[in-house]
Amino acid sequence: MSSTEEPTRGADASDSVLAPPTVAANGGGAMVRLEAVRKSFGTNLVLDGVDLSVDRGQVMVVIGPSGSGKSTLLRCVNLLEPIDSGRVFLEGEEITRKGTNVSSIRQRIGIVFQQFNLFPHLKVMDNVTLAARRIRKLPKKDAEARARVLLARVGLEEKANQYPHQLSGGQQQRVAIARALMMEPHVMLFDEVTSALDPELVGEVLLVMRDLARAGMTMLVVTHEMQFAREVGDHLVFMDEGKIVEQGVPTVVLDQPQEERTKRFLRRSLQLADSLDELHIDDQEGGVE
Ligand SMILES: Nc1ncnc2c1ncn2[C@@H]1O[C@H](COP(=O)(O)OP(=O)(O)OP(=O)(O)O)[C@@H](O)[C@H]1O
Ligand SMILES: [Mg+2]
After folding, report:
1. What is the pLDDT along the chain (289 residues), one digit of tens a residue?
2. Which of 159, 195, 253, 282 is at 20 to 30 A from 137, Cα to Cα?
């Protein structure tokens, strides 16, 4: 990353573009709350009674083995998947009840995926402004002015007129973050956003996420980046087989896990770095651990 593209560090919490809306008049409380959420795909029980609460301004990190339900959890919060039972609340409002305005709820929830999903035929500026112009009916001039501020904040001001294929994966992912921020979300969901990146591009995306956290954004982050979890996370949740097995302060859970399953997962995560010989294909879970 050249110096001109370096994301701004130490964002000022008073910045009106990145800072979330001030706490609602009805006081603090949870930004996102899940209550006994259950979700199956056919006979596969994927979320098995999940209770979770993300406070305003909090960075909640979710870790766990492949297939444990992390992506499904995020998709249920964003109403991309209907839940079977339980309830999901956004800013105190139950969003899983019948008759909610899904579109208006989704505007308050930004989501960034592992695959950036930028439109290849649209320039960066148009990728970033499209939804805001179409859905929020922002005039082109206003949308572009806001997009320029956000692109600068993710270190990509100079790329506004380029096409996605002219950018690195890390740059594309930063565009995807700027695009999500265009809708002025109250909470941001991140699903393994650095997993598809070359190792040397991971850092620039994590820095943008760290700055967003410092600016006060509420974030629910699924990641394998344990250093990010330690340094940026306020709270860490370990999931396995659709259940929250253990949670707490990230350094405490990572350094002194109490549950056997957490210990095993963390040991295997570390083992990966040691030797491929120690890995095996887990037939039941269908993945390499
Ligand atoms: N749309 C779907 N239809 C059927 N099964 C699904 C669907 N989405 C997820 N699943 C199943 O639900 C389980 C949990 O999947 P999920 O993607 O939430 O796991 P994950 O923890 O995000 O895993 P990974 O770390 O590999 O991303 C898996 O067994 C998966 O095969
Ligand atoms: Mg996933």
Report:
1. 444 444 443 444 334 445 444 444 433 489 999 999 999 999 999 999 999 999 999 999 999 999 999 999 999 999 999 999 999 999 999 999 999 999 999 999 999 999 988 999 999 999 999 999 998 899 999 999 999 999 999 999 999 999 999 999 999 999 999 999 999 999 999 999 999 999 999 999 999 999 999 999 999 999 999 999 999 999 999 999 999 999 999 999 999 999 999 999 998 887 665 555 655 565 554 444 4
2. 159
Alpha-carbon gap, residue 123 to 91, rounded angstroms: 34
Ligand 1 near 223 CB (within 6 A): no
Reading the block at residue 53, the tokens are: 């609460």
Phi-psi region of 124 (alpha: psi -120 to 50; beta: other; left: phi over 0): alpha
CA of 190 to the centre of ligand 2 (A): 10
Tell me which residue has its CA closest to atom 18 in ligand 1: 69
Q: Is the CB of 58 under 6 A from ligand 1?
A: no
Task: Note the ligand closest to the C-alpha atom of 68.
Answer: 1
- Closest-CA residue, ligand 1 atom 4, reads 41
CB neighbour list of residue 25: distance below 8 Å, 6 or more residues apart = none
**Cβ neighbours of residue 145 closer than 8 Å, sequence gap 6 or more:** none
The SS3 assignment for 36 reads strand
- Relative to the CA of 42, which ligand 1 atom is closest? 4
pTM higher than 0.85 for the full model?
A: yes
Rounded to the nearest angstrom, the distance between the alpha carbon of 145 and the centre of ligand 2 is 34
Please tell me the distance between residue 62's alpha carbon and the centre of ligand 1 in angstroms.
15
Of 262, 206, 271, nearest to 236 (Cα)? 262
